[in-house]
Amino acid sequence: MSKVDEFEELRPLLFSIAYRILGSVGEAEDAVQETWLRYDASTTQPVSPKAFLSATVTRIAIDVLRSARVRREEYIGPWLPEPLLDDPYEDPARAAELADSVSMAALLLLERLSPLERSVFVLREVFAFGFDDIAAAVGRSEAACRQLLVRARRHMNEGRPRFEADRRERQELARRFFEALARGDVDGLRELLSADVQLVGDGGGKAPQLARAVAGAENVARLLAAVYPFMAQVDITFETREINGQPGALFRDRDGRVLHILVLDVLDGEIRTVRSVINPDKLGHLGPVADAWAVDREVRRARRQSR
Question: Is 44 exposed, middle or buried (0-12, 13-18, 19+ CB in 10 A)?
């Protein structure tokens, strides 16, 4: 098998590792490309291309994450991961771990970890790498990697919810949520939301966004019901999709350009968090991006005319 064939066979795995470490589709793709350049330039053939390439993409991702964390500290408003519609890597034996680890809730928990903790956790807990390969990837001893994993598990377990919804329950709640959203049905939305639900928006200062998270079922229901019906009036449409393995929807303007996404966290029979990504820099990989400011002006005009 040629180098190109070896690399292409492992590309889905390499992207999936990089995305979980970085929380960014664009940065993960760049890390994978840099991995190929280093592999192509290498004059020796590794015993295990999988181990070599996984270690390489991990080291690159760690370096990128260290600089990205500085930028995220200066980010305007809440920072959310770039939405991922489809995870290219599949492993039936680890399907549950893969699905859980790519959710926005899990990626935000991973943000609490140091770059080394995050990388060790991803390689071990998500992809089941041996500690020898993990040690080679992060440049630490196996004993140190075991300690990093212990700390990472503790932080992750402290932030995880106690109850998780099954897939069918999530889909049914999401169906009812988006139907109520389209109708502007405050009562219908309220009954699906937990009492302490949060609505979080990521515009990065580059699109209309919430000044801060909105909390409480009444507040969230009324805000959603006051905006989304008017979006339909200016020809905003949406399609329900799984986003980061969770129920959500992709919104488009009248020309089919991507406006934003909504993702729902469903736990214990209720919607606990509604997350919106409208920052155009985080949507480009989904297709042409809409002018969110222009849409916002149209929606405001429609609301004024309805009074």
Answer: exposed
